[in-house]
Write a structure and sequence with these properties.
2 strands
């Protein structure tokens, strides 16, 4: 099986090949010769690239969700029971790869017709690189991060002190309360202009 997965002569149709690539890499299997309907959907301008969403949109049927078959979930179930129950769901298990196959038959001609095939090839080339970056992670300077955290907390404390002093606020005032902050800003004559979505008070969001 590893030889087939690693051979570019055998095309593997995936939806989110990066996930499959990372799982197989843990077994020292490096998948090659694959196509990805998720990447294709993204390049074709789809904002929702989940397999179930694309199946509804392009194939015209509503796929079964695992929670419909197993409402209680499997997180706390014994492995033996989970395996037994999944054997009853062979149609569910076969649906995803079949839907992926059908979607690829739709997406590939569109990628070619819309001149996106070269871009798709670039995205494919980048996938193993991104997968390896996610698998390995990145080095973090813990001391430097803690130093930045300390400076930011100190700056926040100083800003809070200034706010309480300028506003002559009692210590009971909660600066993180939008209601209290809005009321005080109005009292101080601040140029409050934008209302909240509920239109019950002026907005105090950061951008405003």
């Amino acid at each position: 099986m590893a030889a087939v997965l690693e051979s570019p002569l055998w095309t593997k149709l995936c939806h989110n090949a990066k996930f499959e690539y990372k799982i197989l890499a843990k077994q020292d299997v490096h998948m090659a010769g694959w196509e990805d309907t998720k990447i294709a959907a993204y390049l074709l301008g789809e904002s929702r690239t989940g397999l179930k969403d694309l199946t509804k949109q392009y194939l015209g049927h509503v796929p079964v969700e695992i929670r419909e078959l197993w409402p209680e979930g499997i997180a706390n179930q014994p492995k033996e029971l989970a395996r037994q129950r999944y054997e009853d769901f062979y149609e569910y298990g076969a649906a995803d790869p079949d839907n992926t196959r059908q979607l690829w038959a739709v997406f590939k001609p569109r990628l070619v017709a819309e001149g996106l095939w070269p871009v798709y090839e670039i995205e494919k080339t980048l996938m193993p690189v991104l997968a390896e970056m996610e698998r390995v992670g990145m080095a973090v300077d813990e001391k430097a991060c803690n130093d930045v955290r300390t400076r930011l907390f100190a700056a926040r404390a100083k800003a809070y002190e200034a706010v309480y002093e300028v506003g002559q606020l009692p210590l009971s005032f909660n600066i993180n309360s939008p209601d209290q902050l809005e009321k005080k800003l109005v009292e101080l004559g601040a140029p409050m202009q934008k209302l909240t979505k509920s239109k019950k008070r002026f907005s105090t969001s950061a951008d405003v």
